[in-house]
């Protein structure tokens, strides 16, 4: 089911986008520019373009959506680490699937017991020269100027180093210098330098942010707008405030079973939340998150305005996305280490020359499809290392989705962890964790139950719950179980779940 894009509150600095015709007849030059915006830890359900009930105000992002194309089925595929952003950002940079990335994992039982790890040993799955075929390296060879600003750490360092200009720092404070404005400043100064030098080379700018990842220290004025405080006293609750965002409809004070990652930092150690899921704590934290997200929107607006002043906007493709979603109280969870829609999905908008205005598509894309799409739009020959797919057939309207089946994994914490598969309106999630203490299966009809309500939510509708144990849907469960195993095999998932056929070389 597609949501209508709400009418945004226009800002003068983005009124420039109104000049483009409804048909978006602007055609890219032979070498268009690219502005790739990646935020850290943002659920699509925080944004009005995906959730009209959200109180978060992001007029610049809304305007990008209204003048571009929104994808309702964008996902990050998953993670083999509790630091979910690490594989996610690897996938963005390489266009490769989650098990085909450079990573660290134990090589044998002795190393596992000694907590030692080595580089992934199979060059067929992760080529040694892969950095030469990552985002900046590809565009450098094509004659592009490449620049990035983003947080430090939890990323693909060898790929990041390929950018010609790099200004990385983790900025999660509430001031101009310590927060999101710092990242915006790096892009603005880079554009000023290009303008002063009359640089006519096309550019690819990776515009990354450190927020709304915790610690969510917003600016004082935006914290006040959303009724939040930067709460630091673990012994007390933050003050209640009617301006704070409401609780998510699928909020719970505890998940019905253990998520399988003991002492997971995101679930027990986030300053201002810790292990609490009560209303005051979650609403305050949402207020902090929204303050950080609106600040990001402000910085995006400044960059769009500068591009228009330079005459570069009409020839620039702009992508807005996040490395993954986030729970913040939904389903009794706080972090990003789960496969519910609020976390597995990501926001994804693309706007630029020839992109239809105000159009939505399901897409069924992964973040690893971003790089093949950029390469396609730039008319660059992509390397053989790319495993993702270009979005061009969906953008053109030739097809609604890139793929019919989607696979998701969380393999941090105890192994094998979580797996998910989705086809059409149906989604399966399986949990195999804590050395066999957690064996759970969930089945959702997302058309009837898009927020994945559980029995603990006590919804009245028969379909607004987990249907895995309902005999009326046993055949559908069996179908998705088979699909999940097929995807695990196809994508070189090295593990198998408790109720799947075991093979000797799996479950390392």
TrEMBL record:
Q: Does the keyword Hydrolase apply?
A: yes
Region entry Disordered: which residue ranges?
101-125, 231-262
* Domain Sulfatase N-terminal intervals: 32-379
* Signal sequence extent: 1-28
Write down the species: Rhodopirellula islandica
Q: What is its EC number?
A: 3.1.6.6
The name this protein goes by in its record: Choline-sulfatase
Taxonomy, top ranks, is:
Bacteria, Pseudomonadati, Planctomycetota, Planctomycetia, Pirellulales
Q: Which UniProt keywords apply?
A: Hydrolase, Signal
């Amino acid at each position: 089911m597609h949501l209508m894009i709400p009418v945004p509150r226009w800002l003068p600095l983005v009124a420039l986008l109104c000049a483009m015709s409804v048909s978006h007849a602007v055609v890219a030059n032979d070498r268009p520019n690219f502005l790739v915006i990646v935020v850290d830890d943002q659920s699509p359900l925080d944004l009005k373009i995906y959730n009209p009930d959200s109180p978060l105000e992001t007029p610049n992002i809304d305007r990008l959506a209204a003048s571009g194309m929104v994808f309702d089925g964008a996902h990050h595929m998953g993670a083999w680490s509790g630091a979910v952003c690490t594989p996610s950002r690897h996938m963005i940079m390489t266009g490769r699937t989650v098990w085909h990335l450079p990573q660290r994992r134990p090589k044998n039982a002795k190393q596992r017991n000694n907590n030692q790890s080595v580089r992934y040993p199979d060059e067929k799955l992760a080529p040694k020269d892969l950095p030469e075929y990552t985002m900046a390296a590809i565009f450098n060879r094509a004659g592009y100027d490449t620049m990035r600003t983003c947080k430090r750490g939890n990323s693909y360092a060898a790929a990041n180093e390929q950018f010609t200009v790099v200004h990385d720092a983790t900025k999660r404070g509430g001031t101009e210098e310590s927060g999101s404005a710092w990242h915006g400043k790096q892009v603005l100064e880079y554009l000023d330098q290009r303008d002063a030098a009359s640089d006519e080379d096309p550019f690819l700018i990776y515009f990354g942010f450190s927020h709304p990842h915790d610690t969510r220290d917003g600016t004082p004025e935006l914290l006040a707008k959303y009724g939040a405080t930067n709460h630091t006293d673990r012994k007390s609750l933050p003050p209640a405030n009617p301006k704070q965002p409401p609780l998510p409809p699928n909020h719970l004070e505890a998940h019905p079973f253990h998520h399988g990652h003991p002492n997971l930092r995101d679930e027990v150690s986030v300053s201002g939340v810790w292990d609490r899921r009560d209303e005051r704590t979650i609403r305050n934290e949402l207020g902090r998150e929204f303050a950080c997200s609106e600040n990001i929107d402000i910085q995006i607006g400044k960059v769009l305005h500068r591009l228009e002043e330079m005459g570069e906007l009409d020839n620039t493709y702009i992508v807005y996305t996040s490395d993954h979603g986030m729970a913040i109280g939904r389903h009794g969870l706080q972090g990003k280490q789960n496969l519910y829609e609020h976390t597995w999905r990501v926001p994804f908008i693309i706007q630029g020359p020839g992109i239809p205005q105000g159009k939505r598509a399901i897409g069924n894309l992964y973040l690893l499809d971003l790089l093949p799409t950029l390469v396609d739009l730039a008319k660059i020959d992509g390397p053989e290392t790319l495993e993702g797919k270009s979005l061009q057939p969906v953008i053109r309207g030739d097809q609604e989705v890139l793929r019919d089946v989607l696979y998701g994994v969380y393999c941090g914490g105890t192994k094998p962890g979580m797996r998910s598969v989705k086809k059409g309106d149906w989604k399966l999630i399986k949990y195999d964790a804590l050395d066999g203490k957690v064996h759970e299966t969930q089945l959702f009809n997302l058309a009837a139950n898009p927020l994945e309500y559980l029995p603990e939510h006590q919804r009245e509708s028969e379909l607004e719950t987990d249907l895995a144990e309902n005999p009326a849907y046993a055949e559908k469960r069996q179908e998705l179980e088979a699909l999940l195993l097929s995807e695990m095999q196809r994508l070189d998932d090295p593990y198998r779940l408790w109720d799947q056929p075991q093979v000797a070389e799996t479950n390392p």
